[in-house]
Amino acid sequence: MSVADPLDVEAALQARNDPALDSNDNSPDEGLIEDFTVIDKKAVEQLTEGLISHYLPDLQRSKLSLKELTQNQEVLLETLQQEISKFKECNSVLDINVLRRALKLQQKRQKEELEREQQREKELEREKQLTAKPAKRT
Question: Can you give the pLDDT at residue 56?
Answer without folding.
Answer: 95
